[in-house]
Design goal:
The complex is a heterodimer of chains A (203) and B (244). Chain A has 8 helices and no strands. Chain A is an all-alpha fold. About 18% of the residues of chain B have low confidence. Classes of the chains: A mainly alpha (203), B mainly alpha (244). At the A-B interface, α2, α3, α5, α6 and α8 of A face α2, α4 and α9 of B.
């Protein structure tokens, strides 16, 4: 039986650890993907994901359901990502945001694509990752939330704490920078890829 | 809104983004479509943005399992002791030795002087551990600090035997009451110096370990990246060769 997020949250708040485990299983990939694309590094994304669920577990009793559980989780994860980036800047880390080095080689599926397509996809992944790394954090976050998580402008505005028009401006400016970057690196026509939008917090 | 000159439509980027992501009402959509029919610049921009969006789908996060698991404290402790009990005897002995060694490294010797002579006591170095080392330490500073410590320790070793002999003599005899305060002062200074040395040495070791760990991590990550690049370079070459 598949329970809704709200049911599982209610049970978790009553002390049912297994219900919270189900929420973790359901949301760990989206949260990890969000952190990975915002921060750009696998290990940091893992740490942020773990910390997100830890904080959610501690605070689930106080979750009143004014927002969707997924929005609440996204907010925790984005706050952690923001703290992470601030700390990186403060200690003057040598790392930048992703340069595509974290591309998943296990993702090569011999049944669905040829080696040539895989190599092209890997190269394109690196180009996109580098282009995304060049964006200011606010623009990058807005684009990640829109493109990969399918949030509405209003949901992004709520998460980023800014007006709706600011979200649109961030998206426009971000896409303009990405377009310029991809043109410069010779990426013209898009190649056919799968997983355009693997999940969404829309219900 | 329906009657809008082309210039203002071109400058309305919010409308273009809303149209691109299909988050506008039917009327706004229709207006934008009409505009795009007569405006090459905007039509080209929309096409370019669509192309960017499609290319972005190539960037996927690693799909390795995260393995996140909810473990409550009671489950954790039960699991820990169950696993602990299953360990072989030699592993338990090694762990015990390690704990003793760590405890030894984190303890300090306390020396007290009283009517009965001297008392030595082994205690924990709370003062040391409560002061975390600074986050960033340059190698040159570390080397300078290490050099200074070695000199101090060397100088201390040369002077200690004489001092110790004096102390023992006074303690054993119990007859040199007039010099007692002076002696106490000297002993106190020695103890304080010894404690400071130990604290600085421990802090130095911890900083060195942290820095070495960070350096090794960077080297490993770089090596992994280079290996992957090399492998994919070879793969590209093989593909080109096989394609001829």
């Amino acid at each position: 039986m598949c329970r809704t997020d709200e049911e599982l949250v209610a049970r978790s708040a009553a002390g049912d650890v297994d219900s919270f485990s189900q929420l973790v299983v359901r949301w760990e990939r989206p949260i990890y993907s969000l952190a990975y694309r915002v921060l750009g590094r696998e290990e940091d994304a893992r740490d942020v994901s773990q910390e997100t669920f830890l904080r959610a577990f501690r605070a689930v009793k106080g979750f009143k359901g004014e927002a969707k559980f997924s929005s609440w989780l996204y907010r925790i994860a984005l706050n952690l990502c923001r703290d992470w980036m601030r700390r990186e800047r403060r200690v003057g880390s040598l790392h930048g945001v992703a340069d595509g080095a974290g591309f998943d080689f296990d993702a090569f599926d011999t049944g669905e694509e040829s080696v040539e397509d895989f190599v092209v996809r890997r190269d394109l992944s690196r180009v996109v990752a580098r282009a995304m790394a060049a964006l200011p954090p606010e623009q990058r976050t807005a684009i990640v939330l829109k493109e990969y998580h399918g949030l509405t402008f209003q949901e992004i505005a709520d998460l980023q704490g800014c007006p709706l028009s600011t979200v649109k401006t961030r998206l426009y400016q971000g896409l303009t920078v990405l377009r310029r970057h991809l043109d410069r690196t010779g990426v013209g026509e898009p190649m056919p890829v799968r997983n355009v939008l693997p999940y969404s917090i829309k219900e | 809104m329906s009657v809008m000159d082309p210039t203002s439509r071109c400058s309305n980027k919010d409308a273009l983004i809303a149209y691109l992501y299909d988050e506008c009402d039917a009327r706004a959509r229709s207006e934008m479509e009409s505009h795009l029919l007569g405006c090459d610049a905007c039509a080209q921009e929309v096409r370019a943005f669509r192309s960017v969006r499609e290319n972005m789908a190539a960037w996927t996060p690693p799909e390795r399992p995260l393995g996140l698991r909810v473990v409550t404290p009671d489950r954790m402790s039960r699991g820990f002791w169950r696993r602990f009990a299953r360990r072989p005897a030699w592993a338990l002995a090694a762990a015990a030795l390690l704990i003793v060694a760590l405890a030894g490294a984190l303890t300090t010797v306390e020396v007290r002087y009283g009517r009965d002579g001297f008392m030595f006591r082994i205690g924990s170095a709370a003062a040391v551990s409560s002061q975390p080392p600074p986050a960033t330490v340059w190698r040159a500073d570390l080397e300078r600090l290490e050099q200074q410590l070695r000199q101090e320790i060397g100088a201390g070793r040369q002077s200690w035997p004489g001092e110790a002999q004096n102390v023992v003599t006074v303690a054993d005899a119990g007859a040199a009451e007039p010099d007692r305060d002076a002696l106490l002062g000297r002993v106190q200074r020695l103890i304080e110096e010894s404690e400071r040395r130990q604290q600085r040495e421990l802090a130095l070791r911890m900083m060195q370990m942290a820095q070495e760990f960070q350096e090794q991590r960077r080297i490993d990550l770089r090596a992994i990246d280079q290996t992957l690049d090399q492998n994919f370079g070879e793969l590209d070459y093989l593909l080109r060769v096989s394609g001829r």
